[in-house]
């Protein structure tokens, strides 16, 4: 308002200031800082008047004559308050000082609120500043008290210590708060402590009694284990609303998600009770535990949090009376030991009958209410239906009816499970990782997978944040109920299924028949269809335990079974019956020899798919459209690739703990991967290139300087210009290895240095990878800078046309008419032409590809881009769940994207221009289908057509005009002879 | 200008040429062109109950897919205030056509359930349709069901719809009947005031991808 009211008085703000006035200008703002605390308090008072919730800049809670006090900010203060109440009840003189304003720091209020009787004080910071004298809040409190003593407001300083807690939302419980109060009672205090972890390196941690609880006995504590896909979290959010509004109880919910995007496990912690709930920590003693996926029982300790006598609800595919023998031994033992009451419902059957498929949330929610009696059941059912109407009403009456039907059928399907007196099962829980995993994976990764990461001591963690790669291969998540099965007789060995597999679970190999010795029964092979490998065998093998069941491989298969037309050369088959067989087959397949790279024609898809992928079994969504490109990158260049990865989906499935999909080959070589930030990734990768070039320059200097001490032919070979074809690269690798061996025992400091730099003499392939949110938007400035630099880096944009990782926000890549967050009315502007931007430099290789549109083109582009001795940009169409359709049709949609002109395939190769030819090549046919044939297969477009049909139609027409204009532009470029159009005489200004 | 007036389903038509259910009758502008060119009546494209159901369930499925699964993305689409998922779009266009045209406007319906046939038929009548054409398509997959039973089932359906409406009802006959005249007689007995022949040999309820995801009614 102030700005608006002053529009008639133009002014300049933030003008660059010189040293003469900058200092005074900064001090001129002091009165506003000094006035701020009082203004904030006035705002808090207004809130109190309207809501009854009274807050102050500093709130003290505890004994008026407290001797020991904790100072803390944020939600941890609620935990400390709960702890203080429990300790006061035991007669201890304790208190908590909660700060609600950090800057300007409320020194006066802090001094006034702290009881004069305090002799020991601990300040807690939820942060770590390495190398500091103390964390920020601690330093401020120490300063405030020191100034208070100096000014005579307090007679003396209390004993003061600072500590760290709860980094990255790690648990902070009353037991931990109590450990700090206990520490304050000791004669000698441990300063700069930590709490909530076990620090066995620098021994900063305070021990706490994890079993000590302050929770109210009347509070219902419920824990639910579900899959992201089954709607558990959504159902629980509705339950909280129902209980908070209809039952008049206090309600709280915490939802914990894992790092995977396929088969992600959710854990919901819900509290309900008659008293206000201040417990800002997860449940450790649950009175109700629900397991919404039966297979979890065999994979994780689902009952770990169940309190003695708790009620357990299982979604089980067996009748209650027959369930007991199907429970794993540890589960049976816990049920008996803790005297748990067990109920079951076949929620999948109920939901399927109602037409909801695997969406079991309303079934399980109804059973929860039936078992907990938080509301009379008829009232609960009515409230659940009301919630369903609120959540799904807009999606049509048929959706409501299906959910109502599931709710009504749930109660009658619920039954108590008879519990015998003894354990009968011999079934054990699955190990988190394979037994053959290396020691680090067994000790650390396995603990993370099992949900035991909180218990790992400091000494187990890599101090510099460097973790081993190739760890997904030990996980074996067994997500798929159906997996691909190969028809060896029908297969034409084209490699398309291997190429598109998002999780690299399909592998192909060509090998001598003798290698089949010792193959397990049922291991399939066929005569290899390669001219250069006469008489050899071919096998297409699936790692069934790593498959997500996405079916993209089946869709990609071009072969049809003439005897049974529904079948192809690869078909989905139930996993369970072939699990053991395929596990043995996979283990054997991994022992088969690899075809030497230089014997393959890497321009052919089928040949490239014999190369071992060094990106495997990631946590990406089933059917992901991004990961096949990364896998292809790893197959072609993985043994010498260095990857800078922008934050986004690819950094989550590519590098988030507990496991890493970037892998190593049998020689131990593989991509090195790092993620810096969202906004600086291009520069991050450029830095890698510059560092490698510096290292190489130094290595070449040292080679020349010490030529006399080394094999001269070796030195000359390494200093010669290197080739870029597979044979030349293999030769180069051999020379580098020879040099490394020669320098293994070098004592000369410079030769020792040369040994360390030897790797830089091999060709390193630097890749800068990210999504469209990075490349088109947040990292675009850096991307532009890197393109302009002319340096030899390769940029891969995994273009989903939306910010996928954060839930579908519009990017500048989002096409006109598509609905996205921040574009709920359909995006009004056209998609940015990133390729055209990049081409304008003239010295950058630029290409746009779509695997489903033309896979050979994609392979060719990757190879050309990598070989180009300057910056390369590949823009890769990536289908995504944020487009809103079954991704089994992802490749078909990619093809339609090309055919409708939405995604033209092209290459701009400056190397071609050097020959005098046109560097721009339009690599697809002119659009032959209307845009709606592509767009209206996707919810991102159809939801607008449902909600605002006229607007959708208008945007569709505008989008088609965009495509036509772009196509004409590209056609014009394709017609031109480098710098001049072919028809320049006719259309000089065309 | 010779007098070409005639009657169809009890309706007085200025011309015996009726624009049948097709893309030509989808848009109001083209309906006007047809009337100006002299058609005696127009039949709107069919409303498919199955399509409405599919659109609704598909929207629900894909708006929910991936939701509440990952801490950084609790959903993938923005929430819209409302979706035009029911027959309202069709009915609005029907009412608009009735308002704009002088010639009779005949609605067309393809249902799945008996309840659906009747409910949608009533709403079309309420929207102002002068008559209703039933686009009956049924795939008899029960080996125990003979041809006569299939024909009786269709006649029962026609009777149920006719009894629930005041406007006349016609039935679109499939070209694959053993005894079309006999079937026509049965349908007339059930209350149909007329019938028309379809040249289409493809399934109107095809579940091929292109028709499943065809454009929603606007």
Short description:
Chain A is of the alpha/beta class and 990 residues long. Chain A has 33 helices and 29 strands.
Oligomeric form of this entry? heterodimer
SS elements, strand count of chain B: 8
Q: Average pLDDT across residues of chain B?
A: 85
Shape of chain A: globular
Structure commentary:
The complex is a heterodimer of chains A (990) and B (218). Chain A has 990 residues and is an alpha/beta fold. Residues 980-990 of chain A have low confidence and may be disordered. The two termini of chain A are 50 Å apart. In chain A, α4 packs across α7 (174-184) and α21 (681-705) packs across α24 (749-757). The radius of gyration of chain A is 32 Å and the shape is globular. Chain A folds into 7 domains: 14-53; 58-206, Rossmann fold (3-Layer(aba) Sandwich), CATH 3.40.50; 220-416, Pyruvate-ferredoxin oxidoreductase, PFOR, domain III (Pyruvate-ferredoxin Oxidoreductase, domain 3, 3-Layer(aba) Sandwich); 432-457, no CATH class; 476-611, Alpha-Beta Plaits (2-Layer Sandwich); 694-761, no CATH class; 801-981, Thiamin diphosphate (ThDP)-binding fold, Pyr/PP domains (Rossmann fold), CATH 3.40.50. Chain A is built from 33 helices and 29 strands. By secondary structure, chain B is an alpha/beta fold. Chain B has one domain (6-212): Aldolase class I (TIM Barrel), CATH 3.20.20.70. Chain B has 7 helices and 8 strands; from the N terminus they run βββαβααβαβαβαβα. Chain B has helices at residues 28-37, 49-64, 88-100, 114-126, 147-164, 180-190, 209-212, and strands at residues 6-8, 11-13, 18-19, 41-48, 105-110, 131-135, 169-173, 194-197. Chain B has a 6-stranded parallel beta sheet with strand order 3-4-5-6-7-8. A two-stranded antiparallel ribbon of chain B has the order 1-2. Chain B is globular. The two termini of chain B are 37 Å apart.
